[in-house]
Amino acid sequence: MREPVIGTPDLVEDTFRKYAEHVNPGLVKLWRFAGIETLEWEAEGAVVRDVHGREYLDFSGGPAVFVVGHRHPRVVQAVVEQIQRMPMSVRALPRRSEAELAALLAEVTPGDLRYAFFCNSGAEAVEGAIKLARLATGKPGIIATEGAFHGKTLGALSATGREKYRKPFEPLVPGFRHIPFGDPEALEEAIGEDTAAFLVEPIQAEGGVRIPPDDYLGRVREICDRRGILLIVDEVQTGMGRTGRMFACEHAGITPDILTLAKGLGGGVMPIGAFVARPHLWEAFASDPYLHSSTFGGNPAACAAAIATIRVLLEERLPERAADLGAFLLEGLRSLTARYPDLVREVRGKGLLLGMEFVDPDVALLCAAEALQRGVIFYFALNRPEVIRIAPPLVITREQIETALARVDAALGAAREMLEGLRSVG
User: Fold this and answer.
1) Superfamily per CATH, domain 8-68+317-425
2) Residue 146, class by beta-carbon neighbours within 10 Å (0-12 exposed, 13-18 middle, 19+ buried)?
């Protein structure tokens, strides 16, 4: 706990007013409903501090952004050094940091993935992967999965599998169809003469941390090879050590044709996304290097952050740490599930990507609000709001996990009392 910022009450109210008048009044209503009367102010490691000086354990991770924690000193230092030299590129000369990052990604990504294009977000990475698949195959069809989340730009939204986000913006990009997640037979049946690629997440994070059968990706790889279509694996949330391996598809021992990543790639310091592909696919871009481009993609500061992040992940063995601490956290959450079966249906996950499924979305929201009041930050999955998605920094300690479990236990107890009180009144 630190001293509050001078003028805190006025600062909070002024910020809420400006949100209401200039950002989105709907956000203010949500925050007020959840009892939030503060602002985020600073963070370090797995701890976030608000403007009042109160500390919170970050179990959302941004979501899944802060793989090396908040403000990791090596990532911050790399960015500071680059900014002091040249923060942005004139784009007329080669950039050392972009070349170095691409070579490093070729080392750490599976199989023969070799060429990288850098952008600014996961949605942009997915857009680029879709464009490359269509360009390389000459076919327009993209198969995605129900419950998937690939972003909210128009192409990525066309692949995203929740009607709530798609319907208001129809008609979307043509050529997309959706099949059940975890069902290789459905993929086999969906492939047609115009199919370019199958786009899939190894684990559906925003879909409620849905984990497919162990043989799913292996069977998908075989089907794609046999039927002559590309496999795009979206590792925007599951990549960068989150599930106990650098990339979640490594658990299945497969190499995608195109891999997308973002979120944790910038180490929680700079926004950066990328898609990485096999050499034979890149020939389509090599003939015209400006066929797909991004003004800020591959900028020196973001690349410096990504290089430092990958080195930290490797040298501090954070993927292995995620596997170990993830098992510990999963066990603790399952013990809470046994104590509150009237509130929680199931806990599941891999590494430090876990989902806590509640009996309905309202109970999930109530428990998240109660946890926040007790100093634990987590929130629901966008495509399945009855599931709280848990993705703390990979630098979280066992002691911090134990503290968070105790606070979540208290939050669940308070939520149960509140619900029982409402039922008795009703």
Assistant:
1) Aspartate Aminotransferase, domain 1 (3.90.1150.10)
2) middle
What is the chain's pLDDT, residue by residue, as a tens digit (426 residues)?
788 988 889 999 999 999 999 999 999 998 998 889 999 999 999 999 999 999 999 999 889 999 999 999 999 999 999 999 999 999 899 999 999 999 999 999 999 999 999 999 999 999 999 999 999 999 999 999 999 999 999 999 999 999 999 999 999 999 999 999 999 999 999 999 999 999 999 999 999 999 999 999 999 999 999 999 999 999 999 999 999 999 999 999 999 999 999 999 999 999 999 999 999 999 989 989 999 999 999 999 999 999 999 999 999 999 999 999 999 999 999 999 999 999 999 999 999 999 999 999 999 999 999 999 999 999 899 999 999 999 999 999 999 999 999 999 999 999 999 988 877 776
Only one residue has tokens 């985020």, namely 40
Give the pair of three-digit tokens for residue 295: 């003004």
Going from the C-alpha of 330 to that of each of 46, 178, 333, 334, the distances in angstroms are 18, 31, 5, 6
Phi, psi of 382 (to 5 degrees): -60, -40
Domain extents for the chain?
Answer: 8-68+317-425, 73-315
The DSSP 8-state label assigned to residue 110 in this structure reads: S
- In the DSSP assignment, the letter for residue 39 is -
The length of the chain, given as a count of residues: 426
Cβ–Cβ < 8 Å for 16, 22 = no
Q: Which residues of 204-223 are buried (b: 16+ CB within 10 A; e: fewer)?
A: bbbbbbbbbeeebbebbbeb
Query: For 73-315, which CATH class?
Result: alpha beta
